[in-house]
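Reopening: structure tokens for the zinc ion complex, inputs below.
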Amino acid sequence: MKRRHFVQGTLFSAAVIGLPVYWFNRWDYLTIHHSAGASGDLDLLRRVHRRRQARDPVDEVPYHFLVGNGKGIAAGAVVPSERWRLQIWGAHVSARNRDRNFRSIGICLIGNFQNARPGAVQYDATVALCRDLMRRFNIASDRVTLHGETPGEATLCPGKNFPRDRFFEDIRQA
Ligand SMILES: [Zn+2]
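Re-run output (same inputs, fresh job):
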């Protein structure tokens, strides 16, 4: 009996200490999106999320961060969502792609890069945010993907005008 209690107590302590450590260190990927609208802010994207992802139990934008383009959010301003504040999962890739929604930080640039290009200020802020998160959570550059290039995903997001090659060069620079 004594040994059993010891084992149970040890398992309980490990869970109490280990779970928060795991929870805050589980971020292992970054996924880059565009909002697919010329302007936007948290309120607008919340309304879009309620309409398009009505079954999501989390009433918050699917991403962890928004990066403004000067239309709704100041150009280059980084706005964390409640998902980031609470350190919970995203809903920014397909629902079946559970691991990415769970362990990938979703970054959404306001804008539609099928039509436009990200401005320099917004682009630079995105690179700086990615490099900061990669450093903080020890995320390798091959774990940073554009939404449409993420395994299991089929979408044009973040748009054909997103400067893909330059972006991957820029985030790799130490
Ligand atoms: Zn996307």
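The chain has one domain: 28-172. The mean pLDDT is 94. Marking as resolved unless the reporter disagrees.
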